[in-house]
Design brief:
Layout (H helix, E strand, L loop, with lengths): L2 H4 L2 H18 L19 E7 L2 E6 L5 E3 L5 H10 L1
């Protein structure tokens, strides 16, 4: 079985397009984003890793977990996952 059999490329591409559109809408208020410590170990020390789709990913200096910080506030995430 191939990935194409269970996830047709055109359907997955449409999903990515819609998700990006929703993310731009739900997370437009970048001034509300919150810097957060590592969700894995709780350490506050992290270093920039890369930016993807407008979100800054950082790597924890202690455990090397990769996460988004600053990130959208919980209410924006709840709306996104509930209504996207």
């Amino acid at each position: 079985m191939k990935e194409q059999d269970i996830r047709p490329a055109e359907l997955f591409d449409r999903y990515l397009e819609l998700t990006a559109k929703d993310a731009a809408q739900f997370f437009a208020r970048r001034d509300r984003f919150e810097a957060v410590p590592c969700p894995g170990c709780g350490q506050a020390d992290s270093r920039p890793a890369f930016v993807k789709d407008g979100f800054a990913y950082v790597e924890c200096s202690a455990c090397r977990s990769l996460f988004v910080s600053p990130r959208p506030p919980r209410d924006a995430l709840n709306l996104f996952y509930g209504d996207s």
